[in-house]
Amino acid sequence: MKQIKQSLKNLDLFSLRLRLTIGISTFSALILGSLAVWTSHKMQQILIDSHKHNIQQIVDRLPHDIQLYSEMMQPETGLQKAINNLSNSNTLLFIKNSDNQISIKSPTLSLLSDSTVNKLMSITQMSIKPQIYHVNQSYFVLSGGSLQVQGKFLGKLFVVRDISREQMMFMAMIRSLSIASILAIILITLVIAFYIQYSLQPLCQLSQMTAVISLEDLGQAQLYLDNAPSEVKELAQTLTMLLSRLSQSWEKERQFVSNVSHELRTPLTIVHGYLQSVLRRQSNLTEIQIEALETAASEADHTIRLLQDLLDIARADSGYLRFQMKSYILNDLVEEVVMMAKKYSDRTITIESSIYPIELKTDYSRLKQVLLNLIDNAVKYSPSNTPITLKLNRFHHQAIIEVCDHGYGIPLQQQERIFERFYRVDESRSHTTGGSGLGLSIVKTFVEGMGGNVSVKSKLEEGSVFTISLPIIS
């Protein structure tokens, strides 16, 4: 029962497997149902035609018998004798005169109940077509017509045949046929479902193979299935060529970013140096000139840092980003970072730690850049009168660093995307207030490159907590 519930829970209502199963099963059910209905109708018609033929034989024979008996006895006696000879327990005959009254009938008609006889009589008031009538839990075939002997009209002849036994057998057979059809439809549906699942396995395998292909594997990805249909093999070959083209395009883009970042960084550094040199000798400059030079120097510095971030990302994507992993005391490193951050900000930045020392193996400059980015992010997205707290802890074999602020918070639907490149929560912010959108991406790249991970928890109007986990030296 649990497996069935789990299967129903995991059932994809829009899957190709379900659509094919429902479509083919519905078509099969319509075919089998139509065949069963047609068979039932045909068998019923055969049953009626058989009794119609027998009744017609009686109708054709009766005038001959009446004429024969009438030559040997009184006409009324001969008529009754002829009817008696053709009657039996299942076949009843009676003749109505011109006043619509029964003039002669089979003796066995009295064996039927009065209600049955009355209903049969009411049926004979209408135009009788040979067909099956259901009367008081019994089934009868009725046929009627004029009775003439040597051109003399004797009345209306009605032949009633009780076919209850045959009809019951027929209905039992129909029920069996219906049950067999339902079971056949269920069996066909199950077989179709399993066959479709088996047929779609190559596509599922292809989907699983493509799902695990990472950015680094694009160029070496080879999708091939041994026992797959030719159409799926062609699809796999097409996807392989597509992945190869994507790899080439991605490599060209990566190389372009790396080259541009590298080529622009040097001249911009020189420009920034000249601007700083001129600003240091500002005695001959007007206030407007000084303001313009400071703006230019600030923009150049921002562009240099942006190019450095792009260069680091390009190196990380290419696998050329190297980490100088050495042993450090985390407490001392964080204290140094906080002192640096206080020089560039008038914010209150505190450290909370109950464990000393916390020793870990890391890249000093990379971790320092990570923490400065997170502190800078907290400064930008929190009011100026709120403090920023760095909490240090150790849990199992992990060093935990938490950067906490009391800022505006991040909407829940955006928390999973803030580590994406160039993604900013508030797109209306300029780079002077909201950054370029690369800071948190650099944080994630560096932390994961040092064997750790970073996450965020945030509530609107309450603040955010960025948590870094790095392996410690045990």
What report would you give on this structure?
The structure is a single chain. The protein is an alpha+beta fold and 474 residues long. It has 3 domains: 157 residues, PAS domain (Beta-Lactamase, 2-Layer Sandwich); 67 residues; 147 residues, 2-Layer Sandwich (Heat Shock Protein 90), CATH 3.30.565. The protein is 56% helix and 18% strand. The strands form 3 sheets. The chain has a 5-stranded antiparallel β-sheet with strand order 2-1-5-4-3. A hairpin with a 5-residue loop joins β1 and β2. α2 packs antiparallel against α3, α2 packs antiparallel against α5 and α6 packs antiparallel against α7. The longest helix has 57 residues. The protein is rod-shaped, with a radius of gyration of 48 Å. It starts with a helix and ends with a strand. The model has no long low-confidence stretch (mean pLDDT 79).
| CATH class placement of the largest domain | Alpha Beta
Counting helices, strands and paired strands, the structural category is: alpha+beta
What's the story with the biggest beta sheet? 5 strands, antiparallel
Span between termini: 48 Å
Low-confidence stretches: none
> CATH architecture of the largest domain, please?
2-Layer Sandwich
Subunit organisation of the chains:
single chain
According to CATH, the fold-level topology of the largest domain is Beta-Lactamase
Annotation field: number of helices: 11
Broad shape: rod-shaped
Radius of gyration: 48 Å
Helix coverage percent: 55-70%
String of helices and strands: HHHEEHEEEHHHEHEEHEEHHEE
| Tally of structural domains | 3
Report the mean per-residue pLDDT as an integer.
79
> Could you tell me the strand content as a percent range?
15-25%
Task: Tell me the strand order in the biggest sheet.
Answer: 2-1-5-4-3
- The count of strands amounts to 12
CATH-defined superfamily of the largest domain: PAS domain
